[in-house]
Amino acid sequence: MHSEFCDKVMNMDEKIRFVGIVNPSGEVIAGGFQKDVEPLLEDIDEQELYVQSVLNVAVLNNLADKLGKVYYQIARHDKVALMTFPLSNGILCLSVSSKANIDKIRDDVLNIINNEKI
Fold this sequence. Notes:
Helix content: 40-55%
Structural class: alpha+beta
Number of strands: 5
């Protein structure tokens, strides 16, 4: 189920570099990189990024009673945009090209998450 979900998101746009479902421990349990895409980070840096993303969403969820529900978080860099979406048990992480239509990808991902109930 998770792999099919990740494939569906990956196939939305060729400028999506990575799609992964990350569990609360920071481990990628489904997904991967787009074919022929090389990671920009070493494995240890990539793992640290996933753990930090899980922690960021957890902090935001803890503030939900004051700020409201968190739907996504986006960090734009020169080379990529990193997108994080809370799921029922973990997060969905995307890395997309800085040339991508980030707003469209965000909206499409939110629609898929709502329709798939993941």
